[in-house]
Amino acid sequence: MAKITIYHNPACGTSRNTLEMIRNSGEEPEVILYLETPPSRERLMTLIADMGIAVRELLRTNVPPYVELGLEDAKWQDEQLIDAMLAHPILINRPIVVTPLGTRLCRPSEKVLDILPGQQRAAFAKEDGEQVIDAQGNRIK
């Protein structure tokens, strides 16, 4: 079994769908409830680097701290944005998945399929009913 980690928020449908696609591949990941156990500064910076994204791309913009702190202003440097995410973990977009094949921000949830070492084992539909995997375990789109 491959080592897979998901930074998960069980209140988020995208995060729940991603977790279920990991499980549909036969893996049981390490689940980190990042709102309860936020990553360290070093770990967060490593995740961002491994995803190959800008710090700002990991920010959630539709949560109160984003507006309250004025984070839409371009004046904020990466270090300051990371400080804000560490102080307010709700600002960290999710789910982030780490596998031996890479690290991704899985929005939409199907992005996880690009980094799962195992094939899907059964049909899978998202919570909204959108079919993602057919009965043979193949990606539909």
Integer average pLDDT? 96
Radius of gyration: 16 Å
Total count of helical runs of at least 4 residues: 4
User: How many β-strand runs?
Assistant: 6
- Identify the CATH homologous superfamily: Glutaredoxin
Strand portion, in percent?
Answer: 5-15%
Assign the CATH class. Alpha Beta
Taking pLDDT < 50 over at least 5 consecutive residues as the criterion, the unreliable ranges are none
SSE order, one letter for each helix or strand: EHEHHHEEEE
CATH architecture heading: 3-Layer(aba) Sandwich
For the sheet with most strands, the description reads:
4 strands, mixed
End-to-end Cα distance, whole Å, is 26 Å
Structural class: alpha+beta
CATH fold-type name: Glutaredoxin
Number of domains: 1
Coarse morphology: elongated
* Strand order in the sheet with the most strands: 2-1-3-4
Helix content: 25-40%
Task: Explain what you see.
- The chain has 141 residues and is of the alpha+beta class.
- Helix content is 27%, strand content 15%.
- It contains 4 helices and 6 strands, in the order E-H-E-H-H-H-E-E-E-E.
- It has helices at residues 13-24, 41-51, 64-68, 78-87, and strands at 5-8, 30-33, 96-99, 102-105, 124-125, 131-133.
- It has a 4-stranded mixed sheet.
- A hairpin with a 5-residue loop joins strand 5 and strand 6 (131-133).
- 32% of the residues are buried.
- The model has no long low-confidence stretch (mean pLDDT 96).
